């Protein structure tokens, strides 16, 4: 067979992962490095398996020669109890999305949602003012993003969620982890006054996806002073991204985080340095293909 | 991710399969077809798993996106109870070495030890006289070979084994499956008289491998009239093959069956026609590499 240093077998475990673009991104980058690199989606909903089966799937993947796994909703917390080791940031975050499986079967968890957003933010919005940032959405992805923002040095982070208790819980957890920063919960009712004071706004809810059209807040609240980061990437040009850009805001689209997490996972799996710009170009091409297919399907219907 | 028609994930389950050349043969042939084709050995002894775990491994492979599995010692019989369907020859033989896993998870078993030897025999020893054949060795591989010989039309097959009961058992099973042929058990003591009457002899014991040097019988019993088939392929040129050829016998080396089973498995997994000669050339190259590495290691020791 191919040597372990020449071939990589990776999987993505989660619910509804069949349409994920991550497998294709990894396979293309692997091929560009001359590797035999195969990446399989392992979709719990297709298999009819509960989220709790993630431990058994990780163990089976080790037995069957997988080099690593990405883990997504709803297994990022659940998987932790089944790993031999978890790196510091993933442990503090309480979420793992990347598992490396050693040739001895030893499993180590990482979080590249956090690191991927952090890299995307630093490279895509360099010199962004970090005094006060408002984040909308305190779910799983939101947690990783908030952790990254505080790691990047945000002084005051206000977390807003339609579920005020969730925003409060997340804010108090992050306050404990980042005692040097101020992390508070805000309400949607207070958004106008929050944004009036904020340097930037990060969007971590599903609004803007095809199934949830619109913007997560009235973009009339934005001024050219604000920077805006979206994590929705289907479409890349969400209504928020489009309107913010038109208003003169500096903008980070959701594709940057999606690519950033894949770039970091590829590096962790292979020990090789991926070409981040090439991976982003692949990713944008895949999104375009997807749009073309959907337009064709709509035309045929 | 890559489409299922563009990428193949295959495994080999068995005890001590790490040094098998089958994964490399498949991967190279897959690459020659432009496929993303990854083939992992799944070694029970490395994993510390009992042969009985084959059912769980097959199920896990289905969940994790494998397209197929080869199965070898000691799981070829055990696996049958865990499959959704078994093809006619594999069912009659009572042994499966190739499992196709459908996109719906449905598993179908085949036996390419049988078909691989049959093809090798027909192409490598065309017009071989089939009146009376003596076979040495009635183990797992021997069973598939005997089944292939009778399928090829051997009129009288004498099976000889150091364990007379095993030879008797195998002969009586095959008699029931091939009522038109005569299948009997012979003893090692009677080999000289058996060979005096035989058209050809097939060797299915480990004698001739590096760890079991020598020939399985006194080659002075061979005449140029005999054809000789060996299934040992490490080395390709066993002492039996070498001496038989020197005596003027037509000879089939063990590599032909090893390649034949891989050729058939590749076709079953992919639906594509492999290039059998290219696979044999790959295989001989791999054996040569192995010899070179061993010679180097011996020199360094």
TrEMBL record, chains A, B:
Domain SDH C-terminal: 257-281
This protein's record includes keyword Oxidoreductase: yes
SUPFAM superfamilies tied to this protein: Aminoacid dehydrogenase-like, N-terminal domain, NAD(P)-binding Rossmann-fold domains
The protein's Enzyme Commission number: 1.1.1.25
One GO cellular component term noted in the UniProt record for this chain: cytosol
Pfam families: Sacchrp_dh_NADP, SDH_C, Shikimate_dh_N
Sample GO molecular function, one term: shikimate 3-dehydrogenase (NAD+) activity
HAMAP family: Shikimate_DH_AroE
Protein name: Shikimate dehydrogenase (NADP(+))
Species of the source: Sinomonas atrocyanea
């Amino acid at each position: 067979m191919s040597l372990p240093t020449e071939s990589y077998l990776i999987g993505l475990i989660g619910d509804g992962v069949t349409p994920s673009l991550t497998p294709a991104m990894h396979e293309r980058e692997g091929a560009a490095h001359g590797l035999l690199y195969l990446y399989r989606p392992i979709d719990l909903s297709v298999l009819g398996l509960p989220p709790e089966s993630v431990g058994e799937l990780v163990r089976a993947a080790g037995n069957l020669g997988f080099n690593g796994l990405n883990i997504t909703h709803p297994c990022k917390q659940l998987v932790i109890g089944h790993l031999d080791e978890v790196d510091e940031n993933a442990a503090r975050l309480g979420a793992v999305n990347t598992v490396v499986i050693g040739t001895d079967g030893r499993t180590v968890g990482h979080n590249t949602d956090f690191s991927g957003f952090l890299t995307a933010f630093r490279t895509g919005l360099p010199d962004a003012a970090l005094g006060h940032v408002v984040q909308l959405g305190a779910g799983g992805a939101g947690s990783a993003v908030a952790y990254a923002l505080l790691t990047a040095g945000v002084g005051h982070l206000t977390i807003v969620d339609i579920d005020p208790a969730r925003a409060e819980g997340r804010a108090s957890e992050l306050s404990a982890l980042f005692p040097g920063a101020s992390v508070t919960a805000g309400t949607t009712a207070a958004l106008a006054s929050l944004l009036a004071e904020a340097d930037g706004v990060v969007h971590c809810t599903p609004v803007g996806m095809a199934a949830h059209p619109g913007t997560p807040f009235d973009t009339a609240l934005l001024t050219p002073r604000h920077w805006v980061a979206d994590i929705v990437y289907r479409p890349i040009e969400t209504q928020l991204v489009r309107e913010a850009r038109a208003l003169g805001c500096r903008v980070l689209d959701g594709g940057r985080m999606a690519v950033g997490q894949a770039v970091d996972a590829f590096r962790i799996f292979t020990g090789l340095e991926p070409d981040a710009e090439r991976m982003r170009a692949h990713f944008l091409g895949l999104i375009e293909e997807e749009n073309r297919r959907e337009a064709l399907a709509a035309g045929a219907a």
